[in-house]
Amino acid sequence: MSASNLLFLVMLILGPLVSVSSSSWPLCWAGMEVGFLGLIPLLLLGSVTSSKEASLKYFCVQALASVFLFLTGGVIFIFHGANIFYALGFILSVSLKLGLFPGHFWVTSVIFGMDWVSCCLVLGPLKIPPFAFLSSFSETYPEYALGVLVLASLSAMMGAFLGNNQTNVRAMIGASSITHTGWMTLGCVFGGLWSYLAIYLVVLFLGLLFLWQKDNLAGALSILSMSGLPPFIMFVAKLTIVANSLNYGASFLFLSLPLLSAVLSLIFYLKFSYSFYLNEKSFPGKASIFALGAVNLLGVIWVIL
């Protein structure tokens, strides 16, 4: 790895850390943008034209969202002027950053054109700062939590519908991320966001790693793990959100739509995992099976305890 690429990787790691650890809004926003600026050159390293086109589209969408997020977030967190206009602008800006409904339109097309490493980078570390902003906003201004919950429920359903219309595994993972983003947004209000995000990132990383290595059977199990079926560890993440929602006294409507989306999503998870299973020519390596077993065994232990 060249020195410049190493610098960009350091920016990608340190940017979100600065963003979530600072109490100053300009510094929080700047940390998020440092991570974003470190990501773009890494995305453009690929030699495939479609990957570069997807990276430029991602850059345009994220840059636009960053401008509106800085303006509305500054009014809300610095001047404490969270009227309905600025609150709506802030929520929509964050939704565009995260790929949350109604800002989800770019996710499947961008992920479709990227390689596996780029998919992991886009769907992974840069989601941390926007979720931290949204969680802080929901705690500070609970009167706007209803709007956040509505977008979360609709995002979970939209991801399920989009996933069932995909024939490409990358586009399916993009649609899956829309659904999981909806669940994590519920966690911003009810609690359980960071445990869900951590579990999702581990499962996503393992799944993309196995697909990159063309380990079809391990990839099939990883895709199935993302569905949240017991005893896979994503089941624990969703169970945590549901339990926190019930303890919070949430309306059944805000749980019914995400739960229905989980059932609908299971259709395309099974379709793709079965397809990879049929294409497997040999038994996967011991390292792949050990990694999958260890991660999902944690889910079983968590449920028992």
Automatic annotation (TrEMBL):
<keyword id="KW-0830">Ubiquinone</keyword>
<keyword id="KW-0732">Signal</keyword>
<feature type="transmembrane region" description="Helical">
    <location>
        <begin position="183"/>
        <end position="211"/>
    </location>
</feature>
<keyword id="KW-0999">Mitochondrion inner membrane</keyword>
<keyword id="KW-1278">Translocase</keyword>
<dbReference type="InterPro" id="IPR001750">
    <property type="entry name" value="ND/Mrp_TM"/>
</dbReference>
<keyword id="KW-0813">Transport</keyword>
<feature type="transmembrane region" description="Helical">
    <location>
        <begin position="282"/>
        <end position="304"/>
    </location>
</feature>
<feature type="transmembrane region" description="Helical">
    <location>
        <begin position="105"/>
        <end position="124"/>
    </location>
</feature>
<dbReference type="GO" id="GO:0006120">
    <property type="term" value="P:mitochondrial electron transport, NADH to ubiquinone"/>
</dbReference>
<protein>
    <recommendedName>
        <fullName>NADH-ubiquinone oxidoreductase chain 2</fullName>
        <ecNumber>7.1.1.2</ecNumber>
    </recommendedName>
</protein>
<dbReference type="GO" id="GO:0008137">
    <property type="term" value="F:NADH dehydrogenase (ubiquinone) activity"/>
</dbReference>
<keyword id="KW-0520">NAD</keyword>
<keyword id="KW-0496">Mitochondrion</keyword>
<feature type="transmembrane region" description="Helical">
    <location>
        <begin position="29"/>
        <end position="46"/>
    </location>
</feature>
<feature type="transmembrane region" description="Helical">
    <location>
        <begin position="249"/>
        <end position="270"/>
    </location>
</feature>
<dbReference type="GO" id="GO:0005743">
    <property type="term" value="C:mitochondrial inner membrane"/>
</dbReference>
<feature type="transmembrane region" description="Helical">
    <location>
        <begin position="58"/>
        <end position="78"/>
    </location>
</feature>
<feature type="signal peptide">
    <location>
        <begin position="1"/>
        <end position="22"/>
    </location>
</feature>
<keyword id="KW-0679">Respiratory chain</keyword>
<feature type="transmembrane region" description="Helical">
    <location>
        <begin position="144"/>
        <end position="162"/>
    </location>
</feature>
<feature type="domain" description="NADH:quinone oxidoreductase/Mrp antiporter transmembrane">
    <location>
        <begin position="23"/>
        <end position="208"/>
    </location>
</feature>
<keyword id="KW-1133">Transmembrane helix</keyword>
<feature type="transmembrane region" description="Helical">
    <location>
        <begin position="217"/>
        <end position="237"/>
    </location>
</feature>
<keyword id="KW-0812">Transmembrane</keyword>
<comment type="similarity">
    <text>Belongs to the complex I subunit 2 family.</text>
</comment>
<keyword id="KW-0249">Electron transport</keyword>
<feature type="transmembrane region" description="Helical">
    <location>
        <begin position="84"/>
        <end position="100"/>
    </location>
</feature>
<keyword id="KW-0472">Membrane</keyword>
<dbReference type="Pfam" id="PF00361">
    <property type="entry name" value="Proton_antipo_M"/>
</dbReference>
<dbReference type="InterPro" id="IPR050175">
    <property type="entry name" value="Complex_I_Subunit_2"/>
</dbReference>
